[in-house]
Amino acid sequence: AKSLKERLTEIIPERQEEVKAFKKDYGNTVLGEVTINQAYGGMRGVKGLIWEGSVLDAEEGIRFRGKTIPECQKELPSAIPGGEPLPEALFWLLVTGEVPTPEQTKSISNEWAARSGLPEFVEDLIDRCPKTLHPMAQFSLAINALQHESNFAKAYSNGINKADYWGPTYEDAMDLIAKLPQVAARIYRNVYKDGKVADIDLDQDYSYNFSKLLGFEENKEFVELMRLYLVLHSDHEGGNASAHTTHLVGSTLADPYLSFAGGLNSLAGPLHGLANQEVLRWTMKMQETIGQDASDEQITKYLWDTLNGGKVVPGFGHAVLRKTDPRYMAQREFALKHLPEDPLFALVSKLYHIIPGVLTEHGKTANPFPNVDAHSGVLLQYYGLKEQDYYTVLFGVSRALGVMSQLVWDRALGLPLERPKSYSTAHLKKMYAKN
Ligand code: CMX
């Protein structure tokens, strides 16, 4: 069977030709128009990006290379029969558009384990961070430092031909993904535990090893959750802040490490990835304030207090989605299967039924339904990974799969420096205002 790089070497010229021919026939086709409201409104709905791995539909949610989450769960190789799909297999799918065989999936597990070592100075750097530095800031810091290892940066300074950019980008992408569990687990063990990180098992899969480094591998269910979690958070087309930032930074030919660090910094914002930490905090605070067995009325009142305080209800709403996020549903299914009796899950379920009505009545949000972040915390809590400030780091490890696979395609397709047009209000008024 072919390795991922061998398969890519075959596919890339075909896709390059495909894009060339498509652009030749349709290059001047109008994709959309942009209103002044959209320019002030975070470019919501503006069509202006290419993203190969996934496309988001407002109603049905994400598809990875055309496959829904339940289809991925059915078709991608798993570690145990009928179990959750392996993130290795999803990465192969995102990169190639093809479902890998179990052997090909295993080859990625082995490769990531083999590439996982960190340079000593990066370990030292993480170890010297104060425990009070947010885990996401530590994560970003460490990824920037890993730039020291970049094949792409070295090849560029040695004068690599444009046509060959994708090769060292791919090598960096594989190294970076491989090293993430070591970085992320070191932060976890330093901030919350004894600072000791276990050794990777070279024959195990990525999620097992990440769980092992964190100290959770003995619980098989937790390892399965990790596999599902790393699949679900991987990719959500190109316009979300972490994906777009990685792509934008990468478009300057900054190497994959610098690009991904940029993506992590935007994931660390509370309107994006940090929402998973905020959800749990908000839910626990609610429990503290109105008690374990609060009535629907008490919960509703608490919700209105949040909204009237000028705050968002974390984990609900979405810039593109207009229905319940299928990533939320996949986690809910997992909870129904593995922790149906858990009191915190019961509360999360209750919120799932109450919040959309309240947000609808509030009348502002375009989408009152839960997103991915509304459910991840309760699962992690159940298995004892209780440190909320750490949750976005897990999101970040997963997000690398999507953004790194796209970065390889950015270079393979020769996508240029991104540079959209902006205007000042004064200039826009001069262009359009009647008087
Ligand atoms: N609670 C309260 N108000 C909300 C809301 C929520 N959950 N979601 C949206 N709104 C408000 C917006 O703040 C906005 O108010 P203003 O007009 O006063 O500015 C209004 O409703 C319209 O916003 P929208 O068009 O529905 O949503 P946007 O595309 O602007 O923003 C998002 C999308 C996700 C930032 C927003 O829904 C939000 O803040 N949700 C809570 C945070 C969250 O869960 N983020 C995680 C998203 C998934 C992820 O990236 O990880």
Automatic annotation (TrEMBL):
Matches recorded under PROSITE patterns:
CITRATE_SYNTHASE
Q: Give one GO term, molecular function aspect.
A: acyltransferase activity, acyl groups converted into alkyl on transfer
The catalytic residues are H272, H318, D373
| GO terms of biological process kind | carbohydrate metabolic process; citrate metabolic process; tricarboxylic acid cycle
Keyword hit for Transferase? yes
Task: Tell me which domain of life the UniProt entry assigns to the organism this sequence originates from.
Answer: Eukaryota
Kindly state one GO CC term assigned in the UniProt record.
Answer: mitochondrial matrix
User: Which UniProt keywords are present, listed alphabetically?
Assistant: Transferase
Give the family from UniProt: Belongs to the citrate synthase family.
Know the name of this protein?
Answer: Citrate synthase
Which species is this UniProt entry from?
Absidia repens
Organism taxonomic ancestry? Eukaryota, Fungi, Fungi incertae sedis, Mucoromycota, Mucoromycotina
